[in-house]
Design a protein that fits this description.
The complex is a heterodimer.
Chain A (H helix, E strand, L loop, with lengths): L4 E5 L2 H17 L4 H20 L4 E10 L2 E10 L7 H5 L12 H7 L3 E7 L3 E9 L1
Antiparallel strand pairs in A: 1-2, 2-3, 3-5, 4-5
Helix pairs in contact in A: 1-2, 2-4
Chain B lengths: L5 E4 L2 E5 L6 H18 L3 E5 L8 H16 L3 E5 L3 H10 L7 E3 L2 H22 L1
Helix pairs in contact in B: 1-2
Classes of the chains: A alpha+beta, B alpha/beta.
Bound molecules: adenosine-5'-triphosphate and magnesium ion.
Chain lengths: 132, 128
């Protein structure tokens, strides 16, 4: 998909910057404080995953205006090892690192729309959307 | 590297988290706290997160680790000042912070720790 603004995720400073930008945009779109917090938290999880497991990646931020509806779409992409068993990765408590295994499942619950596409050996793309 | 200050507050230690945490900072805090509990014999650790607008699984893992180490050293961890929007989000994220007490603010967190100490003292008297 094209459009939107692309940001790099190469360091934990970038993760902080992504959080800040998602916050600013959600605010500008008129999201409630709770909704802002939800999408920022989901973004934080996915940015960190892209960094920790994907070896770094990008996020594309797109503001959506659909009739009277507004929303924010975030596409996280990396060219890392990918996820062989997506269902397992989404399960709460599953981790191959030192985590709690909550990031992916949590990000799905915190979003209105969630899509995970991964090809082992090629990379991972997670797209989330939250509507106002 | 800068570190997060740990303040002594009576029988407890107070940590105020104000910055976006990085891995190194989180690990340093864990270490510093462990050392300080051991050195001071503190009975409780208050972690003030009122400045945090986001608590994700990374921060959750850090709180977990601190609580576990503290428990081993016989100190109880109380997380204070969580913002309402953060609390709502945490539930949906699935982060339940098991074994960690929470309080609305530092004062109430201190009261909670005092009650625990009093209850234990009473238990000691009864056992005698
Ligand atoms: N972008 C990615 N590339 C490759 N593997 C991934 C990616 N994102 C997640 N995974 C895999 O899915 C597992 C689960 O991810 P999830 O974010 O749910 O938990 P975690 O990162 O292990 O822990 P937490 O997010 O709670 O700190 C990870 O341990 C990792 O094996
Ligand atoms: Mg994760």
């Amino acid at each position: 998909m094209s459009g939107g603004d692309l940001r790099e995720i190469r360091s934990s400073d970038d993760v902080v910057r992504v959080r800040q930008e998602v916050r600013a945009r959600a605010q500008a779109l008129g999201f409630s404080l709770v909704d802002q917090t939800k999408i920022v938290t989901a973004a934080s999880e996915l940015a960190r995953n892209a960094l920790d497991y994907g070896g770094g990646g990008t996020v594309r931020l797109t503001e959506l205006r659909n009739g009277g509806r507004s929303g924010l779409r975030l596409e996280f992409e990396d060219q890392g090892p990918g996820i062989a068993d997506v269902e397992q990765a989404l399960r709460d408590g599953f981790t191959t690192g030192r985590g709690l295994g909550l990031g992916l499942g949590g990000a799905r619950r915190l979003s209105n729309e969630f899509e995970l596409v991964s090809q082992p050996g090629r990379g991972t793309r997670v797209t989330i959307t939250r509507w106002k | 590297m800068n570190r997060i200050p740990i303040l002594r507050l009576g029988q407890a230690l107070l940590v105020t988290i104000q910055v976006d945490m990085h891995d190194e900072l989180a690990l340093a805090l864990e270490e510093d706290l462990t050392q300080k509990i051991w050195a001071t014999g503190a009975r409780g650790v208050l972690i003030d997160i009122s400045a945090l607008e986001v608590v994700d699984s990374f921060i959750g893992r850090m709180l977990h680790a601190i609580a576990s180490v503290s428990r081993v050293l016989d100190a109880e961890t109380v997380v204070v000042g969580m913002r309402p929007a953060v609390a709502i989000t945490l539930v949906e994220l699935g982060l339940e912070l098991p074994g960690i007490r929470t309080a609305l603010d530092v004062e109430r967190g201190m009261a909670l720790l005092r009650r625990r100490d009093d209850a234990e003292a009473e238990g000691d008297v009864e056992r005698r």
